[in-house]
């Protein structure tokens, strides 16, 4: 909201929104974070954007948190999540086959 109120050029706003979207996707979808990753930091930066109108510092911060090799994000969480999904699908298919076979053997 602070970025919108600062009335930035459309191309700058688009770049910021893309960086924000990438952050949300990585943190909450890929890495399955249920925490408020960076919430306080981003609130403080939003205040700065509101006061100065400079959205570039916020964009750089977001990109740093998603592009850097930080320990905040663990790719193993995502790999485990995918493994669980595929394991569940395999198990459901196996059970369906067993059920069909039992129906036809009557």
Descriptive overview:
With 106 residues, the chain is an all-alpha fold. Helices cover 76% and strands 0% of the residues. The chain has 5 helices and no strands. α2 runs parallel beside α4. The chain is elongated and about 75 Å long.
In short:
This protein is an all-alpha fold and 106 residues long.
SSE layout:
Blueprint: H1 2-5, H2 10-30, H3 39-52, H4 56-67, H5 75-104
Helix content: over 70%
Question: What does the largest sheet look like?
Answer: none
Low-confidence runs? none
Question: Mean of residue pLDDT?
Answer: 76
Which class best fits the helix and strand makeup?
mainly alpha
- Summed up, the helix count is 5
Question: What overall form do the CA principal axes indicate?
Answer: elongated
Strand content: under 5%
Distance between the termini: 65 Å
Q: Provide the succession of SSEs.
A: HHHHH
For the CA atoms, what is the radius of gyration? 22 Å
Q: Find the count of extended strands (DSSP E, 2+ residues).
A: 0
Task: Record keyword descriptors for this entry.
single chain, 106 residues, mainly alpha, 5 helices, 76% helix
